């Protein structure tokens, strides 16, 4: 898993650059950050579709 840290293929939203910052600190924080960001992305996407 340490080899995939540079590529970060699991990052869904590129607009949140903080993912790479969490990746350099701790892996546990990186996993939690991915879950939180994924949830935020889903909420933002749903809100965007509802507005349109």
Question: What is the secondary structure topology, with strand pairs?
Answer:
Elements: H1 18-25, H2 27-51
Report on the structure:
This protein has helices at residues 18-25, 27-51. Helix 1 (18-25) runs antiparallel to helix 2. The chain is rod-shaped, with a radius of gyration of 12 Å. It has one domain (15-51). Residues 1-5 and 8-15 have low confidence and may be disordered. It has 52 residues and is an all-alpha fold.
Short description, anyone?
The chain is 63% helix and 0% strand. The protein is an all-alpha fold and 52 residues long.
Low-confidence stretches: 1-5, 8-15
Q: How far apart lie the N and C ends? A: 39 Å
| Rg | 12 Å
| Element-by-element helix/strand order | HH
- Residues in helices, as a percent range: 55-70%
Shape: rod-shaped
Q: How much strand?
A: under 5%
Structural class: mainly alpha
The major sheet is characterized as: none
**Count of alpha/pi helices:** 2
């Amino acid at each position: 898993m340490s080899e995939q840290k540079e590529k970060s293929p699991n990052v869904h939203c590129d607009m949140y650059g903080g993912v790479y910052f969490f990746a350099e600190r701790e892996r546990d924080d990186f996993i939690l950050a991915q879950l939180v960001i994924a949830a935020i992305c889903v909420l933002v996407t749903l809100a965007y579709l509802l507005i349109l």
